[in-house]
Amino acid sequence: AQTVLWALWSSADLAEGWRRAALAGGAGGARADRDLDAVLALFRAAETFVDRLPQAPARAFLDYLQSQDLPADSLAARAASRDSVAVLTPAGAAGREWDVVVVAGVQDGTWPDLRLRDSLLGSQSLADLLAGRSPDAAGAGAQARAAVLADELRSFAVATSRARGTLLVTAVADADEQPSAFVDLVQRPGDDPADEERDPRLVAAPVPMDLRGLVGALRSQLEGSLAAPGSAGSGPAAPDRGAAQLLARLAAEGVAGADPREWYGLADESSATALWAPDELVPVSPSKAETVSTCALRWALEAAGGTAADGTSQTLGTLVHSIAQDFPAGTEGELLEELDRRWRELGLRDGWPAVAERRRAERMIGRLAEYLKGAGEAVLREAPFSLELDRALLRGVVDRLEDVGEGAVRVVDLKTGKRAPSATETAQNPQLGAYQLAVDGGAFEGLAPGTRSAGAQLVFVGDISKGPTVRAQSGLGPETDSPTWARTMIEGVAVTMASSAFTACLNDLCPMCPVRTSCPLHGEGRQVVE
Ligand code: SF4
Asked: How far is the CA of 518 from the centre of ligand 1 (A)?
């Protein structure tokens, strides 16, 4: 298409005439400018088309052009037109100058944009390493980030040095957005000693001239009047009646956001009823006992559906658990063979993510086999139980109960995650404590009456260390004078679950919490209550 187009253009013999007309100016010059722009855009479109479809015939290019309802965006150079502004990227502005230049939207997180521009597999880092440009892989991330910052600084310098007369740099500072540190490079807040009190660069943005802007301004006016101290300096303040009346009128006309019932954080409680009546047993699962003990709000929101769908990690964990159940004393060969046979159950597509996942699964199986080699005989596997306490109905399924002799068993809970608790944390791990309580309470069918729990352990087969990582908990011991810590903990969990209010408690797992966007202790979730 490009060759045909060039032949047509050359034979038309228009180039020199249009060039002269454009340089001469006036109405004819403006028309020649537009014509030349159109020809450049046409060549640019042909170039892009040929890049995409190198084998397509010239006729296909015509069909492509005719099928367009809107002209495609073109990067072709254009003649400057009068009464207009050029909207450009910093790279597009390089080498040119204007009397007035506006560098807009210099926001924190946008400029500099410090995301690494490398490919998914980091091929540039590998190339740098092999070429000796990067001494080691460990510092490659920091170096790459420093290089990105330097690039961003260069592009900012290009953008801000294009003005012959006036440079205006703009950014927004409000509850959601902050100006970039680059703004300080143009003018620092304390540059003018006369303005120590306030940042002289800040100017109030006018309210947008639309209904949304009007509703926002009226709401802010009304809330401001309510927050101000009353006329006597105390007591409720008088609302701004004018703002309230206007909002009421807008709400009556159906304008979005004008009705206070749509405002976040103002709705009344929908219910203060406890989740379970005082005489009801509260079903407690050992796996959730830890969540309830750590953060009751997270448990409540997750129980109401605020959980993420299972990812590949969870389904792989389920598969490893299932293999461990079917082969309680399996060798590595047997376990790997079973993994191979059932691998398709994960439904992973072919490709490198599936290969990486398969290697991870094989490492897990290797650690599981190593654990099973020295483990006691499994008397029960994936064993369900149910134990009625005062307030709690403790129900669950334990991975494995191993015979340790003398009428006792050891509880084993298999884990495929990558984070193991410390020995101190494990000493009162709620899940293990609940399982031990169930053993001591005779809640397992298939265990002889009077069987005791001699202790419990978490066995991690995920990528934590080379071999399996084991965290042990001592046996609960007899409940002669007072209840064991596990019983007290489970009863406490049941009382918390049966409440009508659930408190958020900051903890180490907050960064991974799936309901963080509804948590009042974090910025992302404060909208729910503020
Ligand atoms: S973010 Fe932390 S405090 Fe908030 S609900 Fe989740 S676990 Fe609880």
From this structure: 9
182, 112 Cβ separation under 8 angstroms: yes
Report how far ligand 1's centroid is from the alpha carbon of 108 (Å).
26
Residues 392 and 363 in one domain: no
What is the C-alpha separation between 67 and 61, in angstroms, rounded? 10
Q: Is the CB of 298 under 6 A from ligand 1?
A: yes
Q: How many CA atoms lie within 13 A of 477 on its CB side?
A: 8
Range of the domain at 242: 211-262
Q: How confident is the model at residue 86 (pLDDT cuts 50, 70, 90)?
A: confident
Look at residue 442 and tell me whether its pLDDT is greater than 90.
yes
Output the pLDDT for position 69.
73
In this structure, which residue's CA is closest to atom 4 in ligand 1? 519
Residue pair 348/354 in contact (Cβ under 8 Å)? The answer is yes
Residue 522 CB–ligand 1 contact under 6 Å:
yes
Burial of 8 (0-12, 13-18, 19+ CB in 10 A): exposed
* In the predicted structure, residue 322 carries a pLDDT above the cut 80: yes
Ligand 1 centre to CA of 516 (Å) is 6
The last residue of a domain, from among 231, 246, 262:
262
Token pair for 295? 């953060």
Residue 253 domain-assigned?
Answer: yes
ipTM exceeding the 0.95 mark: yes
